Amino acid sequence: MRGAISPPGDKSISHRAAMIAAVARGKTRIGNFATGADCASTLSVLGELGVSISRDGSAVTITGAGLDGLRSPAVELDCGNSGTTMRLMAGLLAGQPWLSVLTGDPSLTRRPMARVIEPLRLMGADVSSNDGRPPLAITGRALRAIEYELPVASAQVKSCVLLAGMFASGRTTVVETVPTRDHTERLLKHFGADISVLPGPGRTRISVCRSRLDAADLEVPGDISTAAFFLAAAACLPGSDLTIGPVVANPTRTAIIDILERTGADIACRPADVPGPEPAMFVRVRSGGELSSGPLVISGQTTAAVIDEIAVLAVLGTQLKEGLEVRDAAELRVKETDRIRAIVANLRRMGADAEEFDDGFRVKRSALLGAEIEPFGDHRIAMAFAVAGLLARGSTSILDAGCVDVSFPAFFDTLRSVVSS
Ligand code: S3P
């Protein structure tokens, strides 16, 4: 794998930039907006709420409606496959004085929403659901501020409460005991919100209150979770020399780099200048000798820090001398599909020695054989097993491979452009 690629704009940052720009005053230009279907769902939901949005190449310009300017939607709000759209929009809508209904595709309608319903109800919103799952019917109310300690390590839940806090009376505080991506905090600050972040021993307190937001342009650095598929592949494929960037260098997202380094991959990072609230970098990977790390166990806070990269790490695990074990990853069971089941099933289809646990899995070093892969409609499973296909003997086919469109429609073309035959 040789050459240079620039992955599309980061998905998490793009969702948030669009939502916050939508309730700011004035026009915000968001450069390098994510190209996948998930962030398109966020834009179309915002459009239904009366926000004016235009796209010019990869840039999106949003004319903010102001904090009180969203319009009652005429239709149900379709979040597609995107959990981030649904959970963050729930926070934004909880303070709007009308009924909104958030729905999505069959995968999204199976995913747990009680984690956002509970804090929003505590704030005074009226939220009903299908037994804790979508669709969500939210009747906004005058919200009151709460102090809320996150019961699950979830940036989506944190962001939902912080966004609702922008519409509440008083100061809303979220207490986080396991660090999660902090893009909402950075972006709220970028748009001028009154937000404070107080790190403490073992817990961080983040608080916001209703405050004016003003348009603020930014460029979205590339998505490191998308880059991870290429980084892992280049680390494993002999003779590789691949540079990826700019990608987001926010420390809440870069644990994947540390793990790749621990496996012995030859990685060099250098800063990139991307205007906006997020640090960025270029990452160069060269494949050296055999990858090894002693027994690699990913657990606890590290699991939370690489939750979107576990599928490709599982594939990398098949190349490690002493394999890989992942624990504390039960959250993977409620992603776009049950990723633990999907990872183990597909590893086994490729002949790998893999064992499933309630909260993770173990895979031993295995010679992979080409196989037919079932991604269960999950973009990250499809991309991870495309990487496995490159490492395998024989040919691999991925069923329903179009599901990569959720985060990276150009995935296969990009892969083809850097893999030498
Ligand atoms: C995301 C947070 C994570 C992650 C998801 C995107 C976000 O989910 O897995 O892909 O943008 O906030 P959780 O908040 O459920 O952990």
Protein model, in words:
By secondary structure, the chain is α/β, with parallel strands linked by helices. The protein has two domains: 209 residues, UDP-n-acetylglucosamine1-carboxyvinyl-transferase, Chain, CATH 3.65.10.10; 195 residues, Enolpyruvate transferase domain (UDP-n-acetylglucosamine1-carboxyvinyl-transferase, Chain, Alpha-beta prism). It has 13 helices and 24 strands. The strands form seven sheets. The chain has a four-stranded mixed β-sheet. Helix 12 links the parallel strand 23 and strand 24. Helix 1 packs parallel to helix 6. The chain is globular. Bound molecules: shikimate-3-phosphate. Shikimate-3-phosphate binds next to helix 5.
What's the arrangement of secondary structure elements?
Elements lengths: L1 E4 L5 H12 L2 E7 L5 H12 L3 E5 L2 E7 L11 E2 L4 H11 L5 E5 L10 H9 L3 E5 L2 E7 L3 E2 L2 E3 L5 H11 L2 E2 L2 E5 L6 H8 L3 E7 L2 E7 L8 E2 L4 H13 L4 E8 L6 H8 L3 E7 L7 E7 L9 E3 L1 H6 L4 H8 L6 E3 L12 H11 L4 E4 L2 E4 L8 E2 L5 H13 L5 E2 L12 H8 L3
Parallel strand pairs: 1-16, 2-15, 5-6, 9-11, 10-12, 19-20, 23-24
Antiparallel strand pairs: 2-4, 3-4, 6-8, 7-8, 12-14, 13-14, 16-18, 17-18, 20-22, 21-22
Helix pairs in contact: 1-2, 1-3, 1-6, 2-3, 3-5, 4-5, 7-12, 10-12
The structure holds shikimate-3-phosphate (S3P).
The site of shikimate-3-phosphate has 10 residues, from helix 5.
Keywords:
421 residues; alpha/beta; UDP-n-acetylglucosamine1-carboxyvinyl-transferase, Chain; 24 strands; globular; binds shikimate-3-phosphate
Structure in a nutshell:
By secondary structure, the protein is of the alpha/beta class.
